[in-house]
From TrEMBL:
This is Aminotransferase class IV family protein. InterPro entries: Aminotrans_IV, Aminotransferase-like, BCAT-like_C. Gene3D superfamilies: D-amino Acid Aminotransferase, subunit A, domain 2 (3.20.10.10). GO terms for molecular function: transaminase activity. It comes from the Bacteria. The keyword Transferase applies. The keyword Nuclease does not apply. Keywords: Aminotransferase, Transferase.
Length: 262
């Protein structure tokens, strides 16, 4: 059944009224997760719920019940959105004892499989380990990169140390293993799912400092987020190597991840 509209927004299982959204519009404080849903299933559901619970404890001092989260997602999907992109935001209205859950349902989205191009910028997300709503900097740099003809911005710190992109994790194949940046970053759900899936194919993961100057030394560079995975073909004006066999292994590892019933 096709959805009646391309967008649905609910707060705590009900209509997203002005009163329910007032606090979130005025106070930019909360956390979120984004997931792709196909057939009312998503990859890494347990990791999403763990992310929300941990962030809620850090931001609001209390856990977040996973069954409540699942109930709100199912309600927002209804009978007419079996496939969707879910953006779930948790915030606490003024003087409220408990948090509120905002669920935004949009059409499904997959990352383009074509090689991506990235523009380096000097920016590090504050409180990078939390997927939070304070995203002005990354939106600004991502949009600027798009206007310059790139797919995304590559966030870097002092000395050109790479952390992540504005909307994705970045990984590197060095021939023997997968290297993830040892820098402040969000441990993305897809990144967490890829690590064991790639290890099962003979590519263990490790962390180390990676600088922009190091990029040409890698066999393949790739990005990952809720939309999937893709190789990186260019950073600034520097073309990067892409090993077809490594890319094939990357896609196979991603596709091997099971879908969980919400």
């Amino acid at each position: 059944m096709a959805p009646a509209a391309s967008l649905r927004v609910e707060v705590d299982g009900g209509p997203a009224t002005a009163d329910r959204l007032r606090h979130l519009a005025l106070v930019n404080y909360g956390h979120l997760t984004v997931m792709q849903v196909r057939g009312r299933r998503t990859r890494g559901l347990g990791l999403h719920l763990a992310r929300l619970d941990a962030a809620n404890r850090e931001l609001f001092g209390t856990g977040l019940d996973g069954d409540r989260v699942r109930d709100h997602i199912r309600h927002a999907l209804g009978d007419d959105f079996p496939d969707a992109t879910i953006r779930l935001v948790v915030f606490r209205p003024d003087e409220a004892e408990d948090v509120s859950i905002l669920v935004i349902v949009r059409p499904p989205h997959d990352m383009p499989a074509a090689p991506q191009s990235l523009q380096t910028v000097r920016y590090e997300r504050p409180v990078a380990h939390i997927k939070h709503v304070g995203a002005f900097g990354q939106i600004y740099h991502g949009s600027a990169a798009g206007r310059a003809g790139f797919d995304d911005a590559l966030l870097t710190g002092p000395g050109g140390v790479i952390s992540e992109t504005s909307i994705a994790n970045i990984g590197f194949f060095d021939g023997d293993s997968v290297v993830w940046p040892d820098a402040p970053l969000l441990p993305g759900i897809t990144m967490q799912l890829l690590e064991p899936a790639l290890a099962a194919r003979g590519l263990p993961s490790r962390r180390r400092t990676v600088r922009v100057a190091d990029l040409p030394s890698f066999d393949t560079v790739f990005v990952s987020n809720s939309g999937g995975v893709a190789p990186v073909g260019r950073v600034d004006d520097v073309p990067l190597s892409i090993d077809p066999e490594l890319v094939k292994t990357l896609f196979e590892a991603y596709e091997s991840v099971p879908w969980d019933v919400i």
